[in-house]
Design a protein that fits this description.
Layout: E1 4-14, E2 20-31, E3 36-40, H1 47-54, E4 62-67, E5 70-71, H2 77-86, E6 88-91, H3 103-112, H4 118-131, H5 147-159, E7 165-169, H6 177-192, E8 196-200, H7 204-207, E9 212-217, E10 220-226, H8 241-244, H9 254-267, H10 269-306, E11 312-315, H11 327-335, H12 342-349, E12 354-360, E13 362-364, E14 370-374, E15 377-381, E16 383-386, E17 396-399, E18 406-410, H13 411-417, E19 425-432, E20 435-447, H14 454-458, E21 461-464, H15 466-474, E22 484-489, H16 492-505, H17 511-555, H18 557-565, H19 570-611, H20 620-647, H21 650-655
Parallel strand pairs: 3-8, 3-9, 6-7, 7-8, 16-21, 18-20
Antiparallel strand pairs: 1-2, 1-4, 4-5, 9-10, 11-22, 12-22, 13-16, 14-15, 14-19, 17-20, 18-21, 19-20
Helix pairs in contact: 3-4, 3-5, 4-5, 5-6, 9-19, 10-17, 10-19, 10-20, 17-20, 19-20
Bound molecules: adenosine-5'-diphosphate (ADP) and magnesium ion.
Adenosine-5'-diphosphate binds at residues 13, 15, 21, 23, 41, 43-49.
Length: 657
């Protein structure tokens, strides 16, 4: 059986809808192992077309092209890729080395596509480079070599997978006569080792070295002469080193794709750093916004918890949901509470674990309706709260808990009035149920909410006995309706059960809890809005990735063509580009996260000084979310350019300049 047989091959290029060009006409020819065939003919006669068909780069033709009896024309895309990789070695006129890879890497890449392990890859490539006399130059770049040396690298690359057929399209076309001799000697040696070498050439002198010369004119073979003067001794083919460890049927691994991508990215380092910076800003903003939201929420929660006596459950009547469209009304609704009815108090007292129900009153005023006057000083009060089991000795910073006719002032009022106010009489005016009441009280001491609760110490408030408030109203023939109920529980477990029960019954929690819930709802909305805005910047950066990768595809069209010619599947090409997108995403995500962490350190430093709290909390979940998000967004952005790259036609890509 002949190694290679072309039967009635016709190739027509379609130029447009109506016109086409008949480039190969009824080609019938066959080749054997150990032949060194020169194809000569004028430019445009169809030589390259024929080489591309034989090389499996172009499968659109009529007729049969048999390699070891198998018709390539009927091959699937996958079989064709494998055929190019394992059975064909291509050498081009202009070498087509990948400029940013070293000589060694240019040769190993053909093995990388076959997923040969790294050590073996390097050993074999060194061996192949030694065969073409370049062992001393393996670490150079293609542009550091002479034309002849470059062509020898290309030959080493073509040989590395130990193919049966070597196709060389004008390999000496760009070389001077001396280097031509060197390259020819190497090519001749290959044929002597039992390979089929088909070489396109313009030079008569080159043709004279071949064992057979075929001349083509206008797509037809017009001469086929065997040159008896050239004797190739193919009787004792010395086995190529590469034969033993051939890995047919294997493909480019993911790790190799990532490494190739990393190498590509190094070439355009500045560009990629800029892109990564852009993307990282998006990631940083998203992570920062989420963390900031969390930090503020955590602050509110700790504040609410610090108010609580673990044995006392504060209950209020359920508030209507805040109308966020009308912030002023919402603020007032927070302060003015719905009073409890007797039946409510009865229901609460019947809950299991409740030892006692204390009536309470609380009014949080956002407008200056409640005042405390001491001498010529007037303090506007935000909070007016009745005493209960919630407030204990631990809440008294100075003085003692108020007895009848006494009240506690908080730290900010204390600062306004001065130290000598303790034990003095002050005048309280308060709006209760929309009617003002006035009374005189003695300041018994100073209230403090404890360490974590600077807010309660900052907002002017007074604390006095419920019975005193009742007396004030009784003077006006009014009765005080409780707006708070304090349920004293048997123990902490009972307290937490009671909490669940009151929520079930439809009551609200403490003022702080209710306010906290409402604030947290607002904060959540705000956080989502801010993170959404940050997300837009992420979208913009993903478009940036898309553009950059697309430019990269255009720039590297020729390289893609070459990779296809030496056996890369379109899948592999896609994989390399997706890997690049993946790497950009991963590095941007990491960079963004680091920036966000840096930012949080600075922000938290200041917030710690000002409010004794960390305002940005970057949780591990957000960190992972940031990196994963960046990677996914990048990969999605990279898919389109990667697809474009994979779709490129190998022959067309090789032709681009
Ligand atoms: P050469 O013998 O110089 O290598 P080619 O095989 O490259 O010639 O081209 C043979 C003929 O086919 C030329 O006339 C060329 O213009 C035409 N041809 C080659 N490639 C294409 C193509 N992709 N589309 C249309 N015509 C083509
Ligand atoms: Mg040509």
């Amino acid at each position: 059986m002949r190694l290679l047989e072309l039967k009635n091959i016709n190739k027509t290029y379609k130029l447009n809808e109506t016109q086409s060009f008949h480039a190969l006409k009824n080609i019938n020819v066959s080749f054997n192992k150990g032949e060194l065939v020169s194809i000569i003919g004028e430019s445009g006669s169809g030589k390259s077309t024929m080489m591309n068909l034989i090389g499996g780069l172009d499968s659109h033709f009529e007729g049969e092209l048999l390699v070891e009896g198998q018709n390539i024309g009927a091959f699937t895309e996958k079989q064709l890729d494998a055929y190019r990789k394992d059975q064909i070695g291509f050498v081009f006129q202009n070498c087509n080395l990948i400029p940013h890879l070293s000589i060694l890497e240019n040769v190993t890449i053909a093995l990388t596509l076959s997923n040969v392990d790294k050590k073996e890859r390097i050993a074999k490539a060194k061996e192949a480079l030694a065969q073409v006399g370049l062992e001393k130059h393996i670490n150079k770049r293609p542009n550091q070599l002479s034309g002849g040396q470059r062509q020898r690298v290309a030959i080493a690359r073509a040989l590395i997978n130990d193919p049966e057929i070597i196709l060389a399209d004008e390999p000496t076309g760009a070389l001077d006569s001396e280097t031509t001799e060197q390259v020819l000697a190497i090519i001749k040696e290959i044929a002597q080792k039992g390979k089929l070498v088909i070489m396109v050439t313009h030079s008569e002198k080159v043709a004279a070295h071949s064992s057979r010369v075929i001349q083509i004119l206008d797509g037809e073979i017009i001469k086929d002469i065997t040159n008896d003067a050239v004797v190739l001794d193919a009787s004792s083919p010395t086995e190529n080193v590469t034969t033993s460890a051939k890995q047919k049927g294997q493909n480019l691994s993911f790790t190799s794709a990532i490494l190739l991508a990393a190498n590509n990215m190094k070439q355009k380092l500045k560009r990629n750093i800029l892109v990564a910076l852009g993307v990282s800003i998006g990631i940083m903003s998203v992570v920062s916004m989420l963390s900031l939201g969390d930090g503020i929420k955590a602050y509110f929660n700790s504040m609410i918890e610090s108010f609580m006596n673990p044995l006392v459950v504060e209950v209020s009547m359920k508030q209507e949901a805040l109308d966020l469209n009308d912030p002023m009304a919402a603020m007032q609704a927070l302060g003015a509470k719905i009073p409890f009815k007797e039946e409510n108090l009865k229901e609460l007292s019947e809950i299991e674990g409740v030892v006692e129900v204390e009536k309470g009153f609380q009014y949080i005023s956002m407008t200056p309706t409640n005042t405390l006057v001491y001498g010529d000083k007037t303090s506007n009060l935000m909070g007016l709260t009745s005493m209960s089991s919630v407030i204990t000795e631990s809440n008294v910073a100075v003085g003692h808990l108020p007895n009848t006719g006494e009240l506690l002032i908080n730290k900010s009022v204390y600062e306004e009035f001065g130290e000598d106010v303790i034990g003095q009489t002050v005048k309280l005016t308060a709006l209760i149920d929309n009617e003002p009441v006035t009374g005189e009280f003695v300041v018994s001491g100073v209230y403090t909410a404890g360490e974590n609760n600077t807010m309660a110490d900052l907002n002017n408030s007074v604390y006095l006995n419920y019975s005193d408030l009742e007396t004030l109203l009784a003077d006006q023939n009014r009765t005080l309706e409780p707006t708070m109920a304090y349920l004293v529980a048997t123990d902490e477990t009972a307290a937490s059960d009671i909490k669940t029960t009151i929520t079930h019954l439809g009551y609200g929690g403490s003022t702080q809890e209710v306010m906290g819930d409402q604030l947290i709802t607002m904060l959540n909305i705000l956080t989502i809005v801010l993170a959404g805005i940050a997300g837009i910047s992420l979208l913009v950066s993903s478009i940036m990735i898309l553009v950059v990768l697309y430019i990269s595809v255009v720039e590297r069209t020729k390289e893609i063509g070459l990779l296809r010619a030496i056996g890369a599947r379109s899948k592999d090409v896609k994989r390399i580009f997706v890997s690049e997108a993946f790497l950009i995403g991963l590095s941007s995500g990491t960079l963004g996260l680091l920036t966000a962490i840096g930012l949080s350190l600075v922000v938290n430093h200041f917030s710690m000084e000002a409010f004794n709290m960390n305002v940005m909390i970057i949780t591990p979940a957000y960190a992972i979310f940031g990196i994963v998000m960046s990677t996914i967004v990048s990969i999605i952005a990279g898919l389109f350019p990667a697809k474009q790259a994979a779709k490129l036609d190998p022959v067309d890509s090789l032709r681009t300049e």
